[in-house]
Write a structure and sequence with these properties.
Elements: E1 3-6, E2 12-16, E3 24-28, E4 33-35, E5 39-41, E6 44-46, E7 66-73, E8 77-87, E9 94-99, E10 102-110, E11 118-121, E12 126-128, E13 131-139, E14 144-153
Antiparallel strand pairs: 1-2, 3-14, 4-7, 5-6, 6-14, 7-13, 8-11, 8-12, 8-14, 9-10, 9-13
Length: about 160
C-alpha cells in the first residue's frame, strides 16, 4: 500500500508506505486494582517512600502490596510491557512484574530513577492469545510509581 500526501495546490507532494501495525493497549493508574500499601497519589500508583524495601530474593509472592491492571487483547502475538514510571532514587526504583500471575515470584523490573517520569520497558516479552490478561506490579522498593502502563504488540 502506498499513501500520497497532497500539497495545498492539489498536487502530489510525497509518496510513502504506512508504518507496520503496532497494537498497544493503555491503562492509567486509576484503572488498577490496589492491594496492601499501594496507593493512588497524584495520578500514579505506588508505595510512598517510607524506607521499606525488599531484597532480590523476596519476590512478588512475599508482598501483599500490588497493583493489578487488566487488558483485553484482540490479537495473538508477543507483547512487551511499558510503563510511564518514576523512582525516587537508585534505592527506590523497581517493581516485581507478573503477567497472568507468571512467573510465580515475579521478574524484577528496574525502572528509571531520574527523579522524573518517563517511559521504561519491562524485562522480557509475553506470548498472549486473545482474551483478558492481567499485569501485576508488586512492591519491591517503596518510592517507585507508575502513571500509565502499556501492553504493546511487538511480534
Amino acid at each position: 500500500t502506498q499513501l500520497i500526501q497532497w500539497n495545498c495546490h492539489g498536487n502530489p507532494n510525497q509518496t510513502f508506505s504506512p508504518p507496520g501495525p503496532v497494537a498497544s493497549l493503555t491503562a492509567t493508574a486509576s484503572d488498577a486494582v490496589l492491594a496492601g500499601d499501594m496507593v493512588l497519589v497524584g495520578g500514579a500508583v505506588g508505595v510512598p517512600n517510607n524506607g521499606e524495601n525488599f531484597n532480590n530474593t523476596d519476590g512478588a509472592s512475599n508482598t501483599n502490596n500490588s497493583a493489578t491492571f487488566t487488558f483485553t487483547v484482540s490479537e495473538s502475538g508477543t507483547y512487551q510491557v511499558k510503563g510511564y514510571v518514576n523512582g525516587d532514587s537508585g534505592n527506590d526504583d523497581s517493581f516485581w512484574i507478573q503477567v497472568d500471575g507468571q512467573p510465580a515470584n515475579g521478574t524484577r523490573w528496574n525502572t528509571r530513577n531520574s527523579g522524573g517520569y518517563g517511559w521504561n520497558v519491562a524485562p522480557g516479552t509475553f506470548v498472549l492469545e486473545p482474551g483478558v490478561h492481567t499485569v501485576t506490579l508488586s512492591m519491591r522498593e517503596d518510592g517507585t510509581f507508575v502513571q500509565n502502563l502499556e501492553l504493546e504488540l511487538v511480534l
